[in-house]
Amino acid sequence: MNYSINIIANTAARHQWRFSRRLMSSHFPSPKASLPKLELDTDFYLNPANTDIIRQNIAKRLCVGVDIDRILAMNTAAYKADDVSDAVLNEIKRVPNMSHPRVIDYAEPKVIHEKKYTPPSFKLRNFEKMAKSLNGARMQSLTHLSGERTYYLTGVLAELEQALINWTVDFITERGFNLISVPDILHPDIIERCGMNVEGERTQVYQLDPEFG
Question: Taking the CA of residue 97 as centre, how many other CA atoms within 13 Å lie in the half-sphere pointing to its CB?
Fold first, then answer.
């Protein structure tokens, strides 16, 4: 009897999940975003006079698979920014932002200030040990909640995080800064317009199921 009840319960749960997905899709439609055409500085990237500095910048920023010479070869038409094809624009999007001239030639980090370290009189503990003693974080069995090599705070550490956020907000707003809250879910075209790549095997962007846009 219990076995039959379990089968019925599991079947009902599966049907409820499928129904929930259909309900979300019908009640929360995700129309295609209508955004202006991506504006890139094609005058700069397609000007042969800038090829050398662009090539050096790509190499120094360790961008694999980006080739400014291939981009120039793709742009077979006469050099007119308004006539650049979508294929060329897609390749230009992969070119990294130009580094500031003051830092482009740094082989090693520049030391601004160095203070001699004096060990404290008490025993130092790492984050894992402190969190475990305070029961303030969960760092295992998170596969259904977040990605690998991550954690979430609980109890006193979660309260401490919120207190620090509130203190920081109060501190900066008292000094004339305006508080801005950005959406947590963005269309990939909008993220691309901020200079972040959303395609490829490894990205810094979590993606929703295509069903939800």
Answer: 8
